[in-house]
Amino acid sequence: MPAISKFLHLSPLLHNSRQIAPRSDLVSFLLVGNAQQTVINVRHSGHAWVFRRRQGQLISNKLKDGGHFYIVGLGLIPGFLLLIVVHAIFGSQCELQEYPKEGEQPPHYWQFERTPLRQFLARYITPSDMQYHESWASRFSHWQIRNRWNRIEARVKHLIAERQDYKAYHYHPVTVEWLDHAKRRAAMFEQHYFASASATTRME
């Protein structure tokens, strides 16, 4: 026991020391006495956390890296290089020319742009003014037709609700005129399709 008490004086200086704690159980005190003691582990730390917990940043870092790559690496830098090359080769402005006289070939729509780069975009990538106008005219026509159908449908529903109408089936009574018409159609059909067959059978 003196060795254990001597060991306790050095416990604050050790990383994993042992401390003596008396057992307070009444049964163990009566049977064994106060001589039995228990050894428990005590850990001491003398510095701050080395790895502090924090929220994960993997997704945010990947989003920022991807945006920087696609916007700056594939957008701004190639765009600036393309502008420099086009301005160095073709110049910054196009030259004005006289409008062709009658009988000559008229200029194209993309030749009215001011810079060579805008002429290239207007010729091969962007739609022309005529296509733009036709697309919007078609779109407006589609909207007008759809609005007209919606108004007709709303009017029909209003009349159905006002007159308490519902969907039902009806029939026309059969008259003698329809019977005579059916007989004439049957006779014409028989004369057209079976007259040649009956003639061949008679010849045989």
TrEMBL record:
The keyword Endoplasmic reticulum does not apply. It is found in: Mitochondrion inner membrane. It is a single-pass membrane protein. The keyword Electron transport applies. Its main location: mitochondrion. The chain crosses the membrane at residues 69-90. Keywords: Electron transport, Membrane, Mitochondrion, Mitochondrion inner membrane, Respiratory chain, Transit peptide, Transmembrane, Transmembrane helix, Transport. It comes from the Eukaryota. Pfam families: NDUF_B5. One of its GO terms (cellular component) is mitochondrial inner membrane. Accessory subunit of the mitochondrial membrane respiratory chain NADH dehydrogenase (Complex I), that is believed not to be involved in catalysis. Complex I functions in the transfer of electrons from NADH to the respiratory chain. The immediate electron acceptor for the enzyme is believed to be ubiquinone. Belongs to the complex I NDUFB5 subunit family. Complex I is composed of 45 different subunits. This is NADH dehydrogenase [ubiquinone] 1 beta subcomplex subunit 5, mitochondrial. It comes from Meloidogyne enterolobii (Root-knot nematode worm).
